[in-house]
Amino acid sequence: MSTQLPLTGIHSYEHYVSDLARAEAFYTQKLGFKRIGAATSAAAEVDGMERLVLAGGPQIHVILSKPIKDWSVAANYLKMHPEGIGFLNFRVSSVDQAVAYLKPRGASFLYAPQVTTDSHGTLKQVAIATALDDVNIRLIEDAGYRGFGPAFKLDQEPGSYTSPLGFINVDHFTCNVRTLQPLTAFYRDVLGFEKFWEIEFHTNDVNPNLPVGSGLYSDVYWHPASNIKFANNEPIAPHYRNSQIDIYCRDNRGSGVQHVAFRVNNIMNTVTTMQHSGCNFLASTPSYYERMPARLQRSGFTGTIREDVKALAKQHILVDASAKGYLLQIFSHELARQFQDREAGPLFFEVIQREGDEGFGGGNFRALFETIEVDQIAMHKVAAKLPLELI
């Protein structure tokens, strides 16, 4: 048996949607993606889905899948949830070794390994269920395969697209659940991932006299060899049900992928272009930047932020740091708000630039949490007072 899961990187993720034209327009017009292929008519008939492949950069691909049959995987997902991510697809060096590693660790396989040989070569795949409700994982062995997948006809070769926004790769996925223990056990005991980082905080930590507040516990698990990372959040008491994490789970009608983080080298250029295209981002507060120097000093950072802080503040880009360097982040509005349609789902996107700091800055984490909370109060999703659930 392999000593570790033979992951080599991220292949793609699959986003189930009911309005394919709307989703494609958002990805292409706001996120700089490009359609590079689509499912063949034969595959669409077999799978019961209309599917597009969009590239967001050399290492970033999304499958947009719309049901055309009510028995399809996409239809079953959308009967339970709003639009959202239903599959995370990862490359492995060997499906057989992956199965040999996962089976004795209790993985739940969705089907036996499948092998397809066509004009592009040979591709092997298998899929497993996760502890994220209806989010599953595909493991794909395609080192000798020149296409994207057997179901798709391509107009452009995967890996050949350069993002006009400067997207390099998927930095991490962030997932929300009502209780973390089953999910962290899945990462640790089934996938063999390692804990990378953790944090816990609550608005009552800052002001214990608040009549209501919210908080979270978060941890990050990763696979060191491939650098695949999952950040994961659960709500915590007091006021568990006022937490944005619990609100996400209610909006999503279950646990799921909260956001996808795209890594860039020049976040200011990226965000300027995205803002001009009409992509809406969460706004930071002026006090965030007023407190920033003291917060960076406490982090152990002794270097220099190359970017102009006033320009960062104008664009609402968050800054955090550690002794190793700094990072810059910004978060979009969720798709439900971008489209003014709850069924578009609570998925959103992050843009991140790392300058030596490979962590998940606690200051930014709290700032994101507080910013989303302000946003949810404005949308009347947070109660002024919550009853305790007593017998």
Explain this structure to me?
- It is a single chain.
- The chain is of the alpha+beta class and 391 residues long.
- The chain has 2 domains: 7-154, 2,3-Dihydroxybiphenyl 1,2-Dioxygenase, domain 1; 169-378, 2,3-Dihydroxybiphenyl 1,2-Dioxygenase, domain 1 (Roll).
- It is built from 12 helices and 17 strands.
- The protein has helices at residues 20-30, 41-47, 73-80, 95-102, 181-191, 203-206, 244-251, 267-277, 286-298, 309-314, 335-338, 362-378; strands at 7-16, 34-39, 49-57, 60-67, 84-92, 109-118, 121-129, 136-141, 152-154, 169-176, 194-202, 215-223, 228-236, 256-263, 318-322, 325-331, 348-355.
- The strands form 2 sheets. The chain has a 9-stranded mixed sheet with strand order 6-7-8-5-1-4-3-2-9.
- The longest helix has 17 residues, at 362-378.
- The model has no long low-confidence stretch (mean pLDDT 91).
List keywords for this structure.
391 residues; alpha+beta; nine-stranded mixed beta sheet; globular
Q: What is the strand content?
A: 25-35%
CATH architecture classification name of the largest domain? Roll
Number of strands: 17
> What topology, given as strand order, has the largest sheet?
6-7-8-5-1-4-3-2-9
Radius of gyration: 21 Å
Largest sheet: 9 strands, mixed
Q: What gross morphology would you assign?
A: globular
**Helix count from the secondary structure assignment:** 12
- Name of the CATH homologous superfamily of the largest domain: 2,3-Dihydroxybiphenyl 1,2-Dioxygenase, domain 1
How far apart the termini lie comes to 50 Å
Counting helices, strands and paired strands, the structural category is alpha+beta
Helix-residue proportion:
25-40%
State the low-pLDDT regions, or none: none
Give the tally of structural domains.
2
